[in-house]
Design a protein that fits this description.
The complex is a heterodimer of chains A (114) and B (116). Chain A has 114 residues and is mainly β. Chain A contains no helices and 9 strands. Chain A is 0% helix and 46% strand. A 5-stranded mixed beta sheet of chain A has the order 1-9-8-3-4, with no helix packed on it. In chain A, strands 2-7-6-5 form a 4-stranded antiparallel beta sheet, with no helix packed on it. By secondary structure, chain B is an all-beta fold. Helices cover 0% and strands 52% of the residues of chain B. Chain B contains no helices and 11 strands. In chain B, strands 2, 4, 5, 6, 9, 10 and 11 form a 7-stranded mixed beta sheet that branches. In chain B, strands 1-3-8-7 form a 4-stranded antiparallel beta sheet, with no helix packed on it. Classes of the chains: A mainly beta (114), B mainly beta (116). The A-B interface holds A 32, 34, 36, 38, 41-46, 49, 87, 93, 95-106 and B 2, 4, 30-31, 33, 35, 42-45, 48, 50, 55-56, 58, 88, 90, 92, 94-96, 98-110, 112.
Chain lengths: 114, 116
């Protein structure tokens, strides 16, 4: 699986949009970009994933550049409860073999300030 | 709530002992994954089971073993415990159906193990 690079920490004001970048310059054509977050030692929580198109769900939006070498997770209106470590993970989906392991890096520690 | 359950939430034991951690996957999920999170190592994949069979292994110690039962719940057995085994242990599950493409893993709340 391709490696990812994320800033170790970021701050954002409550109510503002939090934009978390991720670099995955060696991503392959069949690899998806996944985002998870972990709130203070709780189990990692799935946020969103995408292949090449931008994706949006009730939690966040995922913007993937056209060359797919980087992406940005957007939390549109950050709240204090969004304070967490955010992990960007790139993973392939070999069909018929079951899902593959997730390789977690150090992630970005996002702090939402009141 | 991810739908994945883990018991116990907390476990305190002594060096040399053996413990069993239990995981119940989401309804319908066939794959179970175990991860370890320690302070200095981050989240590390240990092992995966798919429909009762071992599918993939990560950096799992020989003192550790796992199995998945016919009802699809899984157990992680840790033996001859050492101080360094103190960590959070997470279970995740996914559908992993034959022919599936995109598959998301959903994590349980974890078991916090403290070895004294």
């Amino acid at each position: 699986d391709a490696k990812t690079t994320q800033p170790p920490s970021m701050d954002c004001a409550e109510g503002r949009a939090a934009n978390l970048p991720c670099n995955h310059s060696t991503i392959s054509g069949n690899e998806y970009v996944y985002w998870y977050r972990q709130i203070h030692s709780q189990g990692p929580q799935y946020i969103i994933h995408g292949l090449k198109n931008n994706e949006t769900n009730e939690m966040a939006s995922l913007i993937i550049t056209e060359d797919r070498k980087s992406s940005t997770l957007i939390l549109p209106h950050a709240t204090l409860r969004d304070t967490a470590v955010y992990y960007c993970i790139v993973r392939a989906h070999p069909v018929g073999q079951g899902a593959q392991k997730l390789v977690f890096g150090q992630g970005t520690r996002l702090t939402i300030n009141p | 709530d991810s739908g994945v359950t883990q018991t116990p939430k907390h476990l305190i034991t002594a060096t040399g002992q053996r413990v069993t951690l239990r995981c119940s996957p989401r309804s319908g999920d066939l794959s179970v994954y175990w991860y370890q999170q320690s302070l200095d190592q981050g989240l590390q994949f240990l092992i995966q089971y798919y429909n009762g069979e071992e599918r993939a292994k990560g950096n799992i110690l020989e003192r550790f073993s796992a199995q998945q039962f016919p009802d699809l719940h899984s157990e992680l057995n840790l033996s001859s415990l050492e101080l360094g085994d103190s960590a959070l242990y997470f279970c995740a599950s996914s559908v992993a159906a034959q022919g599936a493409g995109e598959e998301t893993q959903y994590f349980g709340p974890g078991t916090r193990l403290l070895v004294l």
